Amino acid sequence: MPRIDIRRPHQLTIAEARAVVDQVASRMQEKFGMTGQWQGDTLRFSRPGVTGSIAVTGDAIQVTAELGMMLTPLKGMVEQEIRRKLDEHFG
What we know:
CATH architecture: 2-Layer Sandwich
Strand content: 35-45%
CATH class: Alpha Beta
């Protein structure tokens, strides 16, 4: 399965970064039907065809995702959209 792994530095507190991730996760749930649950400072998310996590640390956001076979042809587009959102919120 194709894997996406993106790390983006940030200047926010962990609480501020988590709040931003919560906003993005809410949008992902509305738009794509993804579900997510926090485990410590890591949001684990899934929906048919993709599973992954967004880890928040004091200086970075780490997004990892594994795409199922149906989303494999869209890996580049999915990765580009994740990078765009990270730039928008943490750039």
